[in-house]
Design a protein that fits this description.
Layout: E1 6-9, E2 13-17, E3 23-28, E4 31-34, E5 39-42, H1 46-63, E6 70-73, E7 78-82, E8 85-86, E9 89-96, H2 99-105, E10 112-122, H3 134-139, H4 145-168, E11 171-185, E12 188-194, E13 202-206, H5 216-219, H6 225-236
Length: 253
């Protein structure tokens, strides 16, 4: 499928014009960044894994009634998505204390929270994506109160789905970050899940060993990032556990 001109390039993905009005082609890069892009590297195969994993999660969420921007996977690195007006917020859902939350509150990493906690950060790399309260969001018009209510409700449903899926394959969902976009259908507007869901945007720990299977492997120099992401993909059945299980191409005469 031919893609159009490039319209946006971020730290991990590139967006191109799609083949039809209202669509985009999302390309997953091998680039890895941490600490607001202060640490950078190219990790072979990372984009392929994130494309396949994000397809897996977005499809599962669609099947339980959560609207997403995902339409279909085009190839190993690209997927067709709905164009949306992105809400300038990162929505962080935390089940256990880790990362910046653990540092801010002096909590031991891995401490289970009394309930899932949702935080919002303002999407601006130059500012370091600062945390913002709901009061700011509504006052500055980034989202309405109804938008926030819908976002929180959907974020908690995403959390329930992801937590259950991960627990089933021996992985603990520590926290994750998602984004939302607005699409317009006639005179009506609705929110849909956008961006991606992958080990780039989640903290995933092995239930038995506590081994990290997410981007903290890169942030903290804990090993090979591709190996960690591949382990997640294998457990979820997105990739076979043995390369010999890969279907062989069939010659068509």
């Amino acid at each position: 499928m031919a893609r159009g001109k490039k319209i946006y390039e971020g730290k991990a993905k590139v967006l191109y014009e799609g083949p039809e009005q209202g669509t985009l082609v999302q390309y997953f890069k091998d680039d890895a960044t941490a600490f607001n892009a202060e640490k950078k590297a190219v990790i072979d195969g990372k984009g392929v894994l994130n494309n396949r994993l994000s397809e897996f999660f977005m499809t599962g969420l669609h099947n339980i009634g959560i609207p997403t921007h995902f339409l279909k996977r085009l190839n190993m690195r690209e997927q067709l998505i709905r164009a949306a007006e992105i809400v300038p917020l990162e929505v962080i859902v935390r089940n256990y204390a880790a990362g910046s939350m653990a540092k801010r509150l002096g909590m031991e990493e891995g401490t289970q929270l009394p309930r899932p906690i949702i935080e919002f950060s303002y999407k601006d790399d130059s500012l370091g994506d600062p945390l913002v309260p709901e009061e700011y969001i509504i006052a500055f018009g980034w989202a309405s109160q109804q938008d926030l209510d819908d976002i929180v409700a959907m974020a908690l449903r995403v959390n329930d789905f992801l937590s259950g899926v991960m627990f089933g394959v021996g992985i603990k969902l520590i926290d994750f970050k998602i984004e939302f976009g607005r699409v317009y259908e006639g005179d009506f507007q609705r929110l849909i899940l956008a961006d991606e869901i992958s080990p780039d945007s989640c903290r995933l720990w092995d239930i038995e060993t506590g081994e990290k299977l997410d981007k903290d492997v890169f942030r903290r120099d804990l090993g090979n990032l591709t190996d960690a992401y591949t382990e997640v993909a294998k457990r979820l059945g997105v990739m076979p556990s043995n390369p010999s299980q890969m279907p062989k191409p069939t010659l068509i005469n």
